[in-house]
C-alpha cells in the first residue's frame, strides 16, 4: 500500500511539463542528428539544421523548443494498492500542475487551449484542461506519461475502418502521402490497429511516447510481424520523399510505431497519429516518496550546427519598401533575409478580420503593401521582445487568403504547403508565400528585434502584432508565378519503394 500526495502529483506534472517544453527528447535529437548528416537535399538539410540549432538554443536558454507548447495529454496508470491523498481528483491534481507549468514566471509557456470549441473558442489562458486517460493496474505506484502535443501534428491524426482483409500498410502510406507538411516532419508516425474506433486512436497516441528505436530494430532485425510492418512503413514513408518540412528529402520519419489490440471479427479500425519535430514526452513514476524530477539531459548530445548557407550570398529584402515587381524576381526555394516590419496574425485574427469586413467596417490596421506572419508567439521574459515564435500551418489560412489579397497584402509567411486554389490566387495577385522552419522557434525569434500590439489583444497569442525583424531567414515557397516548393521538392526526392506492400 502507498499514499501518494495530491500536491506531489501536481508538482511532478509541473516539473515534467517545464522539462519537456525545453529539452527535446535525447532519442529524437540523436536520430535527427543522424538524419542531418545523411540528408542530401540541401533545403531539407538546412531545415533539419535549423531545428537542431534551435533545440540547442532552447536547452541552453531554458526556453520552449517550439512556440506551440502543446496540448497536454497524460496517460496515467494507477496501482490498485495506491491511494491519492487530499481532496482533489487525479484530474484536478494534473490540471493544477498544467496551470503552474504554463504560467511559470521564469519560463512561461504558451496557452493554446480554447474552451467552447464549437462557438466562442475562448482561450483558457493557462492551457488547461489536460486530456487525461486513467488506467488501473496492479501495484502501488502512479505512473504518468506526459506529453505536450503540438496542434499542427494533432490536426493530421487520421482514422479509418478497413475491411478485415485490407492491408494496413497501403492505407498508412497513402494517408501519409496526402498529409502535407503541416505535421512538421521529420517526426514519428504511430499506427494503432484494433479494439474499437477510440481504442485505435488511443493505441496510436500512447505508442508515440515510446522511445525511438527504429535504428536498433533495423540493426537487430524484426522478431515479430508487427516489427516487420514497422520497418516496411519506415522505408515506404521515407521513400515518399516528403522530407523535412515537406521540402523534399530523404528523412520524413525517424521512427514508425505500430500497436495493436484484439478487435471484432467484422472490424479493422486503424488510427494514424503523427508526432511533429517538437517531440515532447516524459515518463515518471510516483511511489509516495515525494514529487519526481527528471535529470537534465547531457547537452553534448545537442550538436552544434554551422550557420548553413553563406549569408553574404543570400538575397536581403527590405519589407518596408517591398513591391510586386521586386517579388517577381524571387525564385522558388530561394532563401531570403527579411528586415523591416511585418504584421502577425493567425486563425482567430483572420476570422475577426473577415467578420469586420463582412459588417462593412474598416479594419483597425491596413494590410496594403504588408507582409503577414502566421504566428502565435510565446510571451517574452527578461530582455526578450518576444518568446519563441515559429510559424503555424498556413493551410488553415487558405480560406481567408483571397480576402487578405483583396486588402492589398503582398506576402505571407507560415509553414507547410498551400492548397492548389490558394497557390493560383497568390500567382494571380502577383503575391508570394514564404516559409520559416516549423520547430525552429527560438532561432526565428532571434531575428525579431521589436514587437508591438496592433489589434485584437483579447485574442492572446492570436492577437495582431507588428514585429520588427532583422535578417529573418525565410524560403520562397510559392513564387509570384505560382511555382511551389512543396510540389517540386517531394517530386524530386521521391524514390521507388524499397519494401513491398503488406
Ligand atoms: O499553434 C502553432 O503555433 C503551430 C501549430 O502547432 C501548427 O503546427 O500549425
UniProtKB/TrEMBL annotation:
Domain Fe-S hydro-lyase tartrate dehydratase alpha-type catalytic: 11-284
GO molecular function, one term: 4 iron, 4 sulfur cluster binding
Residues of the Fe-S hydro-lyase tartrate dehydratase beta-type catalytic domain: 288-487
Keyword Iron annotated: yes
Keyword DNA damage: no
EC number: 4.2.1.2
InterPro entries linked: Fe-S_hydro-lyase_TtdA-typ_cat, Fe-S_hydro-lyase_TtdB-typ_cat, Fe-S_hydroAse_TtdB_cat_sf, Fe_dep_fumarate_hydratase
Catalytic activity: (S)-malate = fumarate + H2O
Keyword line: 4Fe-4S, Iron, Iron-sulfur, Lyase, Metal-binding
GO BP annotation list: generation of precursor metabolites and energy
Family classification: Belongs to the class-I fumarase family.
Known partners and oligomeric status: Homodimer.
Function: Catalyzes the reversible hydration of fumarate to (S)-malate.
Protein name: Fumarate hydratase class I
Source organism (scientific name): Alloyangia mangrovi
Amino acid at each position: 500500500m502507498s499514499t501518494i500526495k495530491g500536491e506531489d502529483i501536481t508538482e511532478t506534472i509541473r516539473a515534467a511539463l517545464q522539462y519537456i517544453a525545453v529539452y527535446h527528447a535525447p532519442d529524437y535529437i540523436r536520430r535527427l542528428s543522424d538524419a542531418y548528416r545523411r540528408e542530401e537535399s540541401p533545403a531539407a538539410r538546412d531545415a533539419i539544421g535549423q531545428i537542431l540549432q534551435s533545440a540547442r538554443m532552447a536547452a541552453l536558454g531554458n526556453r520552449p523548443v517550439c512556440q506551440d507548447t502543446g496540448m497536454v495529454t497524460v496517460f496515467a496508470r494507477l496501482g490498485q494498492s495506491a491511494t491519492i491523498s487530499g481532496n482533489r481528483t487525479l484530474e484536478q491534481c494534473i490540471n493544477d500542475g498544467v496551470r503552474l507549468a504554463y504560467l511559470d514566471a521564469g519560463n512561461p509557456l504558451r496557452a493554446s487551449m480554447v474552451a467552447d470549441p464549437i462557438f466562442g473558442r475562448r482561450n483558457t489562458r493557462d492551457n488547461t484542461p489536460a486530456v487525461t486517460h486513467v488506467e488501473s493496474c496492479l501495484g502501488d505506484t502512479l505512473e504518468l506519461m506526459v506529453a505536450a502535443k503540438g496542434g499542427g501534428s494533432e490536426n493530421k491524426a487520421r482514422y479509418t475502418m478497413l475491411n478485415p482483409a485490407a492491408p494496413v500498410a497501403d492505407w498508412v502510406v497513402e494517408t501519409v502521402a496526402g498529409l502535407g507538411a503541416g505535421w512538421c516532419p521529420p517526426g514519428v508516425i504511430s499506427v494503432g490497429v484494433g479494439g474499437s474506433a477510440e481504442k485505435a486512436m488511443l493505441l496510436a497516441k500512447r505508442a508515440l511516447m515510446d522511445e525511438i528505436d527504429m535504428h536498433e530494430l533495423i540493426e537487430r532485425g524484426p522478431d515479430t510481424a508487427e516489427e516487420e510492418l514497422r520497418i516496411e512503413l519506415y522505408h515506404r514513408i521515407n521513400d515518399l520523399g516528403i522530407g523535412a518540412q515537406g521540402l523534399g528529402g530523404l528523412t520524413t520519419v525517424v521512427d514508425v510505431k505500430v500497436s495493436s489490440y484484439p478487435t471484432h471479427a467484422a472490424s479493422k479500425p486503424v488510427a494514424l497519429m503523427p508526432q511533429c519535430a517538437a517531440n515532447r514526452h516524459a515518463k515518471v513514476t510516483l511511489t509516495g516518496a515525494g514529487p519526481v524530477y527528471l535529470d537534465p539531459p547531457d547537452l553534448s548530445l545537442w550538436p552544434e550546427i554551422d550557420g548553413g548557407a553563406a549569408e553574404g550570398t543570400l538575397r536581403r529584402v527590405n519589407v518596408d519598401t517591398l513591391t510586386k515587381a521586386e517579388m517577381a524576381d524571387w525564385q522558388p526555394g530561394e532563401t531570403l533575409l527579411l528586415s523591416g516590419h511585418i504584421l502577425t496574425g493567425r486563425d482567430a485574427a483572420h476570422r475577426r478580420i473577415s467578420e469586420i469586413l463582412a459588417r462593412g467596417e474598416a479594419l483597425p490596421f491596413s494590410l496594403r503593401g504588408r507582409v503577414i506572419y502566421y504566428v502565435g508567439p510565446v510571451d517574452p521574459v527578461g530582455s526578450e521582445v518576444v518568446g519563441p515564435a515559429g510559424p503555424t500551418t498556413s493551410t488553415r489560412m487558405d480560406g481567408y487568403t483571397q480576402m487578405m489579397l483583396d486588402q492589398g497584402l503582398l506576402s505571407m509567411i507560415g509553414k507547410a504547403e498551400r492548397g492548389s486554389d490558394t497557390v493560383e490566387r497568390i500567382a494571380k495577385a502577383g503575391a508570394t508565400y514564404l516559409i520559416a522552419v516549423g520547430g525552429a522557434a527560438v532561432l526565428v525569434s532571434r531575428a525579431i528585434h521589436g514587437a508591438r500590439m496592433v489589434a485584437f489583444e483579447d485574442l492572446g497569442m492570436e492577437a495582431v502584432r507588428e514585429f520588427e525583424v532583422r535578417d529573418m531567414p525565410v524560403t520562397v515557397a510559392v513564387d509570384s508565378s505560382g511555382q511551389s516548393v512543396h510540389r517540386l521538392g517531394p517530386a524530386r526526392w521521391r524514390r521507388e519503394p524499397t519494401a513491398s506492400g503488406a
